[in-house]
Amino acid sequence: MATYKGKSVKLNSPRRIAKGETSHGKKKSVVYVMDGDRVKRVTFGDPNMKIKKNQKGRRKNFRARHNCDTPGPKTKARYWSCKAW
Question: pTM for the complete prediction?
């Protein structure tokens, strides 16, 4: 557990953005990660889209488009989006 803006948050655990919370309607998920010595909030995902990752062609195309073989650091949305796929 860590503290982000006075609240206790669980690190490296993506969750859906609740109604009334910041970014609701703009992004689908949120995760809190450590960026050096501070906690960073990373939002990702399209709230109006189903991902359908069980369709082989779509999964392969998404992973190719987003370079999921080298997803980068945990502080970027691409890392978490690739992990979801």
Answer: 0.87
